[in-house]
Amino acid sequence: MVKNSTSSKPLSKDDLDTALKAYATKADLNKAVKGSERILRAEILKVEGKVENVEVVLKRLEGKVENVEDGLKRLEGKVDKMDSTIEKISNQLDGFVGRVDDLTNDNEIGADQIHRLREDVKERGKRIAKLESPN
Fold it and tell me: 102 versus 4: which is more confidently predicted?
């Protein structure tokens, strides 16, 4: 039999009942578990709701990312077209600049020739004037 540590006499039923009242009974534990279970279920439902909200937000973000990717592809296409156009313009400018250089050279040569011809005409004019003069 269980003995009380302070006395050597055996415990009575009343003593045992009094000592056991400090401890939870099976019914108390079941109540606590059911209460905890209700709280946990409520928390799980809240978390599930938040997860669903996160999933909705992620789907929206995926849509936005796809839109951005589509826009980026269109932009890349436009950039490629611009590069092609710039290259065509550059090629045309190269040809134009080459022709302008040729014309500039021709102009300088022509100006030099005109200058020489004028000098020549002046010299001949002086000779003719000298030949036609009465002296």
Answer: 102
17 or 122, greater pLDDT: 122
For residues 92-109, average pLDDT: 94
What pLDDT, in 10s, does the model give residues 29-49?
Answer: 888 888 899 999 999 999 999
Angstrom distance (rounded) from CA 111 to CA 119: 12
- DSSP character string of the chain: --B-TT-SSBPPHHHHHHHHTTSPPHHHHHHHHHHHHHHHHHHHHHHHHHHHHHHHHHHHHHHHHHHHHHHHHHHHHHHHHHHHHHHHHHHHHHHHHHHHHHHHHHHHHHHHHHHHHHHHHHHHHHHHHHHHS--
Q: Output the pTM of the full model.
A: 0.46
Alpha carbons within 13 A on the beta-carbon side of 131: 6
First CA to last CA distance, the chain: 174
Backbone angles phi, psi at 10, to 5 degrees: -70, 155
Lookup: tokens for 39:
């709280």
